[in-house]
Design a protein that fits this description.
Elements: E1 4-9, H1 38-47, E2 55-60, H2 64-70, E3 79-82, H3 87-102, E4 108-113, E5 117-118, H4 121-135, E6 140-145, E7 156-166, E8 169-178, H5 183-192, E9 195-205, H6 206-216, H7 218-227, H8 233-242, H9 248-258, E10 262-266, E11 271-272, H10 277-284, E12 293-295, E13 301-303, E14 310-312, E15 317-322, E16 325-330, H11 338-346
Parallel strand pairs: 1-2, 1-4, 2-3, 6-10, 12-14, 13-15
Antiparallel strand pairs: 4-9, 5-11, 6-9, 7-8, 7-9, 8-10, 15-16
Helix pairs in contact: 3-6, 3-7, 3-9, 6-7
Length: about 350
């Protein structure tokens, strides 16, 4: 752990949590699970493994004030502000370049999304330590979440043969990554016992990541090499506008898995990516979001803190009320909430974004 660094990815706009998540204050900055925001909860988990000087946070420049306010212990130089979003491959490359400048030795990198939820933090810390130990042997490692249902909102990882053991934990070769499946495929994945949900948490040696980046995204690697450790804002913006907008899963993990270069560690720790209102409803179950009066109504989730809510003969609905917008949808269509945001963008209804 002495030469391990954490990268927290805090970009994105959380469009599937509209109308609560807005462009000026996206999902990761919201206290959806308690008093702390999702970002602050992620920081707290990670800071129990890494000292603040070895934690880097990558976020959008327009959220700089929010990031500094919510993360007062983060060293100012460790906050990396992207002028425009270019997905996770660019964000990790940005942080990797800064880490390389701070520590020329071959550091270990651990990547964590800022907007996920984890119930068992002790297990989280244990599996992160095991993943770093596996990554130290020049492997690319991903945490795989054993599925509990045929979920169609997650990407999946198919495991291959056992590769080795790391600190008593079985490590598997990854056969392939798959995109979000249809319901039939998701059910088949669950029955097979060979598939995990893709947690989005990755671990590499810096040299391993750099080699993959040079092989699969050479222009991105070259662009960050030219930038140097502390580029002027104008130069950073010019470079970012030319970068490919692509995820690290698609551009690095998938081709590496095809060549047998990726390992998965099963991680049972009570995880959710909180990707939609339906996922939040599943997280809380019947303990939250219930209506005050219910008659022949089941499975509804309500986010309307200032209003008395009654449901009569209504099942599996999501209702989200804010001062200027109201969302009503079926729970099984919660993944489509982002389409509302695209509609608002087309209609130039900026006051609702």
């Amino acid at each position: 752990m002495r030469n391990a660094y954490a990268i927290i990815l805090a970009g994105g706009y959380g469009t599937r949590f509209w109308p609560v998540s807005r462009r000026a204050r996206p999902k990761q900055f919201l206290p959806l699970l308690g008093k702390e925001s999702l970002l602050q909860q992620t920081w707290r988990r990670v800071a129990r493994l890494f000292p603040p000087r070895r934690i880097y946070v990558v976020g959008n420049a327009e959220h700089a004030r929010l990031l500094r306010r919510q993360l007062p212990r983060l060293p100012r130089r460790n906050l990396l502000l992207e002028p425009v979003g270019r997905n996770t491959a660019a964000a990790i490359a940005f942080a990797a370049g800064r880490i390389r400048a701070a520590n020329p030795a071959d550091a270990l990198l651990a990547v964590f999304p800022a907007d996920h939820a984890i119930r068992n933090e002790s297990r989280f810390r244990g599996v992160v330590r095991r993943a770093l130990a596996a990554a130290a042997e020049d492997a690319m490692v991903v945490l795989g979440i054993p599925p509990t249902e045929p979920h169609t909102g997650y990407g999946y990882i198919e495991r291959g043969q056992p590769a080795k053991r790391s600190s008593g934990q079985q490590v598997y070769a990854v056969r392939r990554f798959t995109e979000k499946p249809d319901a039939h495929s998701a059910a088949r994945y669950l029955r097979s016992g060979r598939f995990y949900w893709n947690s989005g948490m990755f671990f590499w040696r810096l040299s391993t990541f750099d080699g993959l980046l040079g092989r699969h995204l050479p222009r991105t690697r070259a662009a960050f090499a030219r930038l140097g450790p502390s580029p002027p804002a104008a130069k950073l913006r010019r470079v970012y506008q030319k970068l490919e907008n692509i995820s690290v899963d698609y551009t690095l993990a998938e081709p590496a898995a095809a060549k047998g270069k990726v390992c998965a560690i099963p991680a049972e720790m009570g995880w959710s990516d909180l990707g939609s209102w339906s996922a939040l409803a599943d997280w809380f179950g019947a303990r939250h979001g219930s209506v005050q009066f219910s008659l022949d109504a089941r499975g509804n989730f309500v986010h309307a803190r200032s209003k008395f809510t009654a449901a009569i003969s209504a099942d599996n609905l999501i209702l989200v009320d804010t001062p200027d917008a109201l969302l009503l949808c079926r729970r099984d269509r919660a993944q489509d909430v982002g389409k509302v945001v695209k509609y608002l963008e087309r209609k130039k209804l900026r006051h609702l974004l």
